[in-house]
Amino acid sequence: MRSMGRNETAHAPADDVSGDTEEFDPIGTLTLIGIYFVILVLAWVYIYYIEFLGRDLVVVG
Amino acid sequence: MHIHAYEKLWLAASVLLILLLLGSVTYGAVGPGVAMVSDSEPAIDAGGLDEDERFSEPRVEQVGENEYEAYVVAFQFGFQPDPIVVPEDSTVTFYVTSRDVIHGFEVAGTNANTMVVPGEVAEITVETDGAAEYGIVCNEYCGAGHHGMEGKLEVVSQSEFDDRTSGGDGE
Amino acid sequence: MSEAIEGDRTFADKFPEEARIVRAALLGSFLALTLGAIFGIIQTLHRTGIFRGLIDSTDYYTSLTAHGVFLALSFTTFFLVGLFTWAVVRSLDRPLLNTKITWTWYGLMAAGMTMTGISILAGFTDAIDMSADVLFTFYAPLQAHPMFYAGLAVFIVGSWIAGADWFRTWLAWKREHPDERIPLQTFMVLTTMAMWYIASSAVAASVLIFLLPWSLGLIDQVNPTLTRTLFWFFGHPVVYFWLMPAYLLWYTVLPKIAGGRLFSDPLARVVFVLFLLLSTPVGIHHQYLDPGIAEGFKFISMTNTMFLLLPSLLTAFTVVASVEYGARRRGGSGLLGWLTDLPWRDPAFTGMMLAGLMFAAGGFSGMVNAGMNINYMIHNTIWVPGHFHLTVGTAVALTFMAATYWIWPQITNKPIYSRAIGLFQVVLWFIGMALMSNAMHAQGIMGVPRRTAEPEYSGFDYPTMFGGFEELNVQIAIGGTLLFVSTVLFIGNLVLTMGNPKVSGLAETLPPALSGPDDSPKVLDNLRLWVGIALTLVVLAYALPLAAIINRGGLLGPGVGTYPVWLSPALDALANAAASVLGAVGDASASLVEVVR
């Protein structure tokens, strides 16, 4: 679809905006970003609780 | 303002993630008791360390039962004392300052790590486990010889510690 | 409609003078990239011990200073001023008010960076008594030649005039279009520059009040913690200054290349407002392990930093959704099957997507950096450069290179010499950085320090964790070499492009957002309000720490010496003489501080 020959403008044309918004559910995006979320949480738990707190010479004061 | 339901979901997850991060750091502070280098020590005259009671003679000193203090001076390009010798299963507080530029004091591979700023004294307390040898590196660029600036931390048994301190090698 | 349909006319056709400025800025940026890449390959081979024959280890720090200043300041900022000029003129669809002013700021920035660059490069030769081996962060009391600081000041003043130029152009547009929303790209430019004014004021003050007079011998000492804190007041928001042009491209150009449109204009505005508000009151997170700063200030800084994750996390969603929309319109289907319906052969698209992917990884190491006490594990280790080579070194740099393949034809009317080489180049960057950055993170956890010519020590060996030290060194060297080759391909492709004949039909347009600006609250465009809140947050985050630091060490430091890395003995004596005369000024002001205290 290369036919959208309009600029990003101060006033977006009303005709195709509202319709599209309701139609499009970015389920693929939600899936991808959900995977990212799980990776972040697991990686954080590993690096904070296992790698960091498990090291020698923890600074306690 | 129109925000898609999925995006609201993601926003909520993001806030949850941020709370997890803040919660972990707080847990580290109150659970295992990890404390930050802070402003606990008053400022010091970096040019006058020779007259300072603690830093004119960098050393390890026993201050209580199983409690030791290490007064460490960082300079271009080394640490004093070197090596730093402390006994195992003890509580050691490092007081580290610089007599010239900004340095780093990092016991490589451990969590003992602090900036060393002239005019300030960094105070960090650690608990040692069994006997071990660690390298100390300066991890802040401090001049042309920076890469050669290293020291040693030796955690030794109580008997060896007593031998070495009474043996008169300066510690 | 504020703008006419662009039709077949490119930016160069419509705004030839502005296109010339954009070209000049981008070329300045690519010159800096070339120099930075040369130092990069020297360092990657030297540090890892693969080849140490080209420079002495003592000169490594001259190289490292050049690498940091040319890439982090020059490459990024020159690209930014070019891109922002393009974005303002394009989205307002009007020329700049007065291009004499435009050429003035360009000239100042170029002159300033040349001064700073010369003072750094002179460090390679003993023939001139000049050097600036103080690295990108120039922490006192290491002292550079005065020209290093003077050049930085001129460079920053140039960037301030650039911002004023864009603000004036916007105000002129506003008079012509009183009731319209600020076009999105211009909105992004203005919020970024507002953030830049706030952030750079601190480093300008540090340079002009303390470091430059001190390097000239007018005052004989400075407070290292104070100048360091003022640096980081600037040093964290500057990373968003690098990142915002990349965000502008991800929000406004990437969806178009993917065949889609921006998912949400209002959220894009919210994100930029959040960056304006939160970028600056976080700098103390670079000083978590500094003595002389209370733990409470560090905790406040961490909280702000963590909330600064929000705009980036929101961006991830909005940008990916915009791309997904493009893929669906191209016939993509399935939960993830649409990923195969994207223009992966387009170097601009693939480059930006890979840059975004790396930014997601960099987000994780950034969270670790931001976590106050976990900083003990990685502070000043090579983990940190591992992190920012993912962010500024890929999210920003790779996006800029990818965007060049899209934008360059429109500002020159010349098609890219080889899009195939372009595609190969961006993928090569990704692979090279994946290797280099991964190994740097792993070495960092082992405790290997950053910023050192020879990270191996005589007295101890590093523990083996994710592969041994040596093995990771090889990974770093291979990655760094691939990055260098990628840069050479990029520059070569661009040089050959310049030899192409001019053609017509290269015009590109940008589609409006799915959810347009009319859907966003008007208050988002109230820049005065946001700047006011941003300033308030900065005062809340910094007033007490700065007061405490000055109270502890004095404005001019607690008896800290001066360690010039540039004076010969003869000059040294001269400077000492001058310092003793003029030092009286310093003493007087120091005693004044005593009295006030």
UniProtKB/TrEMBL annotation, chain B:
Pfam families (alphabetical): COX2
Record localization: Cell envelope
PROSITE patterns, alphabetized: COX2, COX2_CUA
Assigned GO CC terms: membrane
Keywords: Copper, Metal-binding
InterPro entries recorded: Ba3_CcO_II_C, CcO_II-like_C, Copper_CuA, Cupredoxin, NosZ/Cyto_c_oxidase_sub2
Example GO molecular function: copper ion binding
Key word Metal-binding present: yes
Top-level taxon of origin: Archaea
Occurrences of domain Cytochrome oxidase subunit II copper A binding (ranges): 39-167
Gene3D superfamilies per record: Cupredoxins - blue copper proteins (2.60.40.420)
PANTHER family registered for this protein in UniProt: CYTOCHROME C OXIDASE SUBUNIT II, NITROUS-OXIDE REDUCTASE
Protein's recorded name: Cytochrome C oxidase subunit II
From TrEMBL, chain C:
GO cellular component, one term: membrane
Keywords assigned: Electron transport, Heme, Iron, Membrane, Metal-binding, Respiratory chain, Transmembrane, Transmembrane helix, Transport
Membrane association type: Multi-pass membrane protein
GO molecular function: cytochrome-c oxidase activity; heme binding
Subcellular location: Membrane
All residue ranges annotated as the Cytochrome oxidase subunit I profile domain in the record: 26-524
GO biological process: aerobic respiration
Annotated signal peptide: none
Residue intervals passing through the bilayer: 21-45, 65-89, 101-124, 144-167, 187-211, 231-254, 266-286, 306-327, 348-368, 388-408, 420-440, 474-496, 529-550
Chief location: membrane
InterPro entries in UniProt: Ba3-like_Oxidase_I, Cyt_c_oxase-like_su1_dom, Cyt_c_oxase-like_su1_sf, Cyt_C_Oxase_1, Cyt_c_Oxase_su1_BS
Family assignment from sequence similarity: Belongs to the heme-copper respiratory oxidase family.
Listed name of the protein: Cytochrome c oxidase subunit I
